[in-house]
Amino acid sequence: MTQTAKSHSDQVTLTQFIIEQQRGLPDASGTFTLLLNNIVIACKQISHRVNRGALIGVLGSAGSENVQGEVQKKLDIITNDIMVRALDWGGHLGGMASEEIDDPIKIPKQYPKGKYLVLFDPLDGSSNIDINLTVGTIFSVLRCREGVEPETEDFLRKGTEQVCAGFVLYGPSTMLVLTTGNGVNGFTLDQDIGEFILTHRNMRIPEETSEFAINMSNQRFWEPPVKRYIDECIAGQEGPRGKNFNMRWVASLVADVYRILNRGGVFLYPFDLRDPERPGKLRLMYEANPMAFIIEQAGGLCSTGAERVLDIKPHDIHQRVPLIFGSKNEVERLIDYYQQPTNN
Ligand code: AFP
Fold it and tell me: Are 279 and 245 contacting, i.e. CB atoms less than 8 angstroms apart?
């Protein structure tokens, strides 16, 4: 996929793209466009804060812990507040849930309630923020039963029920990657005009790859199917795979997903034997489900090793899951290793 500079008149903005998609849906009322617009405004504000960094004093630790027991960065709190304030007033949401907050966030009484729920990780990869590496915001949109004040159970829905998922990448360029179940498209923020412009149409993950992403420091805790897979990759040309593999690990899910969407690869944050109470590191509702929707829409696969991520019935809004995704042929191979009894 090559991108060439286009004149302004040829450019498709995100708003135009969404409105044109909506025209094809007879029941569309425009509410979803408004919701997405507010998410985008929040992400532009976050992009600005992340970009200004030390100049505006937003780097460093906040000295508190979130519901996951992780030390919060100042920007974890700032970006969470930006998302909440951008989304609570619009009238299109029944409620929202954030990776940073214990319970779902209610819409203040003075505002009307709407037909969607939003779940988000306001700043994924925030442990990378102080070293100026790519971070991002991930979001997932579900429908809300109209007329109900949503409780936690109303958010506990399978990933297959998502109507939209996306992430914004705050990297060398600020980019939005989006799916509404009709392929995956990438938009680059033109900072001069403040608009996201369609630059990566119909992103597809190559089925073949020779690149893997995993945190190798956890090797001693892995289950046999993952050990076998990685050993075979590392054995390279002389090993059973008969080819050399490369490894990448940014430790920012958004950046690793973006690389895989562009040039293929396989990502693993598998179940490991450190703590049986913690079946993985990444969060189902805020990270795994939205990324699984995007990956599948781009022709890849996403699994825990034992089951398709999008088919998991959630039991806890902050639950963690093992995550294996990327180029179809490699994920299929891993699923096959999980199914072979000698590997388990
Ligand atoms: P932080 O938001 O705490 O930096 O965690 C990032 C993350 O959830 C995900 O974006 C990475 O893929 C993964 O954790 C990295 O985990 P390790 O630090 O264990 O490599």
Answer: no
